[in-house]
Structure formats: structure tokens, C-alpha cells
Amino acid sequence: MSRTFRSPLHEMASTTPTQFWNDSCATSDLQYALEHGAVGATSNPTIVAGVLQREFADWKTRIHELFKAQPSWTEAQITWKLIEEMSVRGAALLQPTHEQSGGQKGWLSIQTNPEFHSDPEALATQALHFASLAPNLMVKMPATAAGVVAIEEVTAQGVSVNATVSFTAPQAVAVAEAVERGLKRREAAGHSTANMAPVCTIMVGRLDDWLKVCSDKQGSVPTPGTLDWAGVAVFKNAVKTFKQAGYRTRLLSAAYRNHLHWSQFIGGDVILTIPPDWQRKFNASTVPVVSRIDEPVPAHVMTELSERSRTSAVPSIPRA
């Protein structure tokens, strides 16, 4: 008997190991994503600002309550309180998935304050606080030098992390190694890690963006479409590296710019955090849902990317 799927994303989620998350904590967006197979969600201060603009009527009363209850708080403190409450509300929608999967799915990722990017103690303190707000809140932390230190520490204390602002395979490996150290410390102390699900984000679209900026500055003319493969090449290379090393961190693709950032990763044991507008575009597309994660990036594309990366302020694009 043939199976009927509601959408391409639902088909991917139902027939491959590839997970997709909603890149928004807005209730309406998350509900749409869940209907099409999503098993998680991500948020950050920018996303929350967008949610407030769209759902201000739902939050207006609560904002007034906070200002009245905390007259000495700054606007920044009020904002972070709203970020927490929005994240907890979104996490509640994912809680059934979290319970049914034994903690492997159903996470909502809440981001630490970017101002702490160079302060491991502040990052760790905020991460531990966020993780205490709901059982399925994953904490998004920067893949900076300080962030990697904090990631190891909070992993050892049982927090599932999502390393963000990562753009290269070596950066992702540094995160995975830190997570492994944290997991081993936790296990050595006699604690279970079975319900932890750490991930590392690679901002595939932002790498593409940077190479395009560099190309414009240099006044060069790339072959049409070539630079759209840069993030794909890095992500596929990282997937191979993680699989060979046996890392327990799962890779996550973010920052969507075209369908390659979806279609080329189908079939991988990875997570795709897709913004609501791109979800609708992919669901309306005719791109076949087939596994492409092991397909190499075209040789001529890799040759041009490698040449361009040598003249740009980015690490060399690894072979994929």
C-alpha cells in the first residue's frame, strides 16, 4: 500500500533519519511545523523580536505586568524575561514529543546572551538557569573559545547544548570534542547521559553570504550558483568527520538561502532548523525527497570554491 504524505517536509521526516525543527518560537509557526513533521524548535533574541511584532496583542498585557511588578528593571531585563517565557511556552508544545522520544527529540533551543560570548562563567551560569525552566529546553551557546569551555562544563552538569555561530568543520569538531569531554565527566561521576541530545549548528547560508561579499569586494565574477554550495560543502564534510569520529553531537543546519540547504542534507542523521517561510517554500516545491547526504559536491564546484577560499578571509573549503 502506498503512503500518502502531507508535504515534502513531512515525507522527509517520516521516511529518513533527518529531523527538521521550526526556526521560530511563535506559536502559530510552531503549530504549522508540527503538522508537517517538526520535532523541535529554535529561538534567539532576533526571532523573539519578530514574534513580539506579530503576536504583540498576546503579550501586551504580560509586558505591562512585568513593568508594574519590576519597576526597577531595564528594558533589557524585561526582554530577557519575555524570551524565557516565550521559550517555555514553545517548549510545552514540544513536551509530548520529548517524552515519547525519551528525550532525543522535542527540544526547544533558547539562546544565551551574546554579550557573554567571551565569558565562560557567565555563559555557564545563564545556561544552567535556562535549563532549569523546562525539561526540554536546550541551551544555545556560541562556538567561541569561551563558549567551548562553557559547553564542556554545562554538558558535564547535564545540560543539552546547541552550539551556534559555527561556520567551519574545525569549529564544529572543537564543539564535539568539548561535548565528549563533558559527557565523559558526567558518566564518570555516575550520572546518566541517555536523555541528553547535544547539537552543533553550522550556519551554512551565512558562509555562502560571506563568500559572496568577498567576491564583490574583489570585483570577481563567480560562476552562477557556485557560491551557493559553500555551506553545503562544509556541512557534508563535517557530517563525514562526525560519523568517523563517533561523536555523540548531532549536526544542525541553519541560515537558509536556497533549497540546497534542505535537499542536499536529506537522508543524514542531522537536524535542519528551517524558518517558517522556507518551510512553506519547500512544501510547495517539486524537489524530490531522496537521500543526497552522501552525494559529493560537483567537482567543478569544489575546484572553484577552493580557489576562491584561498583569496577570501575564510578557511579553505574542505572536500565533500
Describe this structure in words.
- The structure is a single chain.
- The protein is α/β, with parallel strands linked by helices and 320 residues long.
- It has a single domain, classed as Aldolase class I (TIM Barrel, Alpha-Beta Barrel), CATH 3.20.20.
- The protein contains 13 helices and eight strands.
- It has an eight-stranded parallel β-sheet.
- Strand 4, helix 7 (145-156) and strand 5 form a beta-alpha-beta unit.
- The relative contact order is 0.13.
Provide the descriptors you would attach to this structure in a database record.
alpha/beta; TIM Barrel; disordered C terminus
Question: Which spans of ≥5 residues are poorly predicted at pLDDT below 50?
Answer: 316-320
Helix and strand run: HEHEHHHEHEHEHEHHEHEHH
The CA-CA distance between the termini, in Å, is 37 Å
CATH topology: TIM Barrel
Category from helices, strands and their pairing: alpha/beta
Number of helices: 13
What composes the largest sheet? 8 strands, parallel
Report the CATH architecture: Alpha-Beta Barrel
- The CATH homologous superfamily is termed Aldolase class I
For the record, the count of structural domains works out to 1
Our estimate of the beta-strand percent is 5-15%
Report the CATH C-level class.
Alpha Beta
Give the overall average pLDDT.
Answer: 92
For the biggest β-sheet, the strand order reads 1-8-7-6-5-4-3-2
Global Rg:
20 Å
Helix content: 40-55%
Shape: globular
What's the β-strand tally? 8
